[in-house]
Design a protein that fits this description.
Elements lengths: L1 H5 L14 H10 L1 H4 L1 H8 L20 H12 L3 E2 L9 H5 L8 H23 L7 H19 L2 H4 L3 H4 L3 E4 L13 E3 H18 L13 H15 L2 H12 L23 E5 L3 H4 L7 H4 L8 H5 L4 E2 L1 H4 L26 E2 L2 E2 L2 H4 L31 E5 H14 L3 H15 L13 H12 L6 H7 L36 H6 L27
Antiparallel strand pairs: 1-5, 2-3, 4-8, 6-7
């Protein structure tokens, strides 16, 4: 009976139930490899196509864990444009109807982090924090870091920025000590960040000496990077810069030649600090529920190319990128040209001809401003098993620049920014060439460098910026239903709790503020970057 039960460890789903700590201990004693399954599964579920609803024929194409959360957040912001099509499973994000508690999109974005929190809590409650065994302590430290990462993917969406709203309710806290799940009220934003910092402090202290097998695991520098994000979101600028420097140590950004071809798909890319290892076996549980099917423009079996639901850049942002910046090629222009296409081929076709290539039931022509930033293991491949970057050294460099500028060391922050861009993206760059404030210039660089990686929405929110998708309806590349702006303090920014959560946790008081945006509203709003 025990051996039979072990077979289920690989597909543990904490949502709706938990594995007893005694069961894990028994598995560790009698079948160590199988006993490790809950720990390994904690990582696998971060981006697997079985995050909430399950895989195979029962899975949803929009259900792929934290990668889906990143994609959804970006689609709610200003910089990614997708078609308003019946094939677009993420149209709720474009219209911001994702505030409906009965919809699957907000449910997945709430349930996936709490499933991961439950998995981390199992590890934390199972292993002895006083153990002298280093491997045990390393597992505990990684579980604490995963729990912090999960709350970092909830906090920015359920309450406004820390500097103005730290005492306001955010989301419920669930730890290994929580016993009352039906009467668990929302903790304040400050309490959430206190837990995040406590978990990351534990991880940093206890991952000293840990050497990971690959970049899919969290090591000490990754934990520093997560704490840098937390400090950035809290407005603790000097601390954010210091942690980002610690995370970046020993890593170098991708060079101009490296980003002059579609990339960002391999865990072993030297500029990645942490990423998701999308194995073929995991991807094939539902290849349509992957970043490759949705965000990459070169999949031979995905929604993006197959149904022309390409992820495109807002032309307001694209037009601000200098021609001398290598990153301008990360998207085709209005004429469907990009120099990155000269480095690849699809069915024997290369260059601009890839943009107009049409393959029945596989690929439709690119749209203006389609991204070619994200590459594939094989252009036109169908496995959709490309990896995903959760953290790159470039992000840490930009956190250093912002942290130093906002903490009063403006010259140092400017120098870090200019050194990075000149050496790796645009040799002719100067920080004041655009006429923006230095703070807005750093935000512009984040919006370009980290486009499509899940930072657009949290950044807009933490900086107190309005949502600005368009200036002129006649030149915007947003579909009409997605074309609107929204003030920074509009309560519609705040996610709603799913009906499933409010039905089971009776202490939840839902967010109700704001008004659903309507087409072409607030055309006068500006954000300081795309003005």
């Amino acid at each position: 009976m025990f051996l039979a039960s072990c077979a289920g460890f690989d597909s543990l789903a904490p949502q709706g139930g938990t594995l007893l700590a005694s069961q894990v201990r028994t598995a560790n004693e009698y079948a160590p490899d199988r006993g490790n399954a809950p720990f390994n599964g904690m990582y696998t579920k971060l981006g697997a196509p079985v995050s909430v609803y399950g895989g195979g024929s029962n899975g949803r194409p929009d259900d792929f864990g934290f990668i889906m959360i990143a994609f959804s957040g970006d689609l709610e912001a200003a910089d990614i444009v997708t078609a308003n099509s019946g094939y677009n499973w993420f149209s709720t994000c474009g219209t911001l109807t994702s505030r409906n508690g009965d919809y699957a999109n907000p449910y997945i974005r709430y349930a996936a982090p709490y499933n991961e929190i439950a998995a981390a809590n199992e590890i934390i409650s199972t292993y002895d924090a006083g153990s002298s065994d280093k491997e045990t302590i390393y597992k505990l430290a990684q579980a604490h870091a995963i729990r912090a990462f999960s709350y970092l993917n909830l906090a920015p969406y359920f309450q406004f920025r820390y500097e103005t709203s730290s005492d306001l309710p955010c989301v419920p806290i669930v730890t290994e000590k929580t016993v009352n799940f039906t009467e668990n009220p929302r903790a304040s934003l400050a309490q959430i960040y206190d837990l995040i910092l406590s978990d990351l402090n534990f991880a940093i202290e206890n991952l000293d000496g840990y050497v990971r097998t690959d970049k899919s695991r969290i090591d000490r520098q990754t934990a520093y990077g997560l704490r840098a994000r937390a400090n950035l979101y809290m407005g603790k600028w000097a601390e954010a810069a210091s942690d980002a420097a610690a995370a970046a140590e020993g890593y170098t950004p991708a060079g101009m030649e490296e980003v002059s071809r579609p990339s960002f798909y391999n865990l072993n890319e030297h500029n990645w600090i942490w990423g998701y290892d999308m194995t073929t076996d995991v991807a094939l549980t539902n290849p349509y529920a992957t970043a490759s099917a949705w965000i990459r423009s070169f999949s031979g079996d995905g929604y993006s190319a197959g149904t022309q639901v390409y992820s495109c850049i807002n032309n307001l942002l694209y037009d601000k990128i200098p021609d001398s910046d290598v990153r301008k090629g990360w998207w085709v222009d209005e004429n469907l040209d990009s120099p990155l296409l000269d480095k690849i081929s699809w069915n024997g076709v290369s260059g601009r001809d890839i943009s107009t290539l049409e393959i029945e039931n596989v690929k439709l022509p690119f749209l203006p401003y389609t991204n070619v930033k994200f590459g594939m293991n094989t252009v036109g491949g169908t496995n959709n098993d490309e990896d995903w970057p959760f953290m790159r050294v470039e992000e840490m460099i930009l956190i250093q620049a912002e942290g130093y500028v906002r903490s009063g060391q403006r010259d140092l922050g400017r120098q870090i920014l200019e050194d990075f861009i000149r050496a790796y993206r645009d040799p002719s760059y100067t920080a004041d060439a655009s006429g923006r404030s230095l703070e807005d210039e750093i935000w512009f660089q984040r919006r370009v460098e980290l486009w499509g990686e899940g930072f657009s929405n949290p950044d807009t929110r933490r900086l107190g910026k309005p949502l600005v998708r368009f200036h002129d309806v006649s030149t915007s590349n947003f579909p009409a239903a997605f074309r609107f702006n929204m003030p920074a303090d509009d309560g519609w920014w705040l996610m709603r709790f799913s009906t499933a959560e409010t039905n089971t946790n009776l202490a939840i008081v839902n967010n109700t503020e704001g008004t659903r945006p309507v087409q072409d509203q607030y055309p006068e709003l500006r954000d300081g970057v795309t003005d």
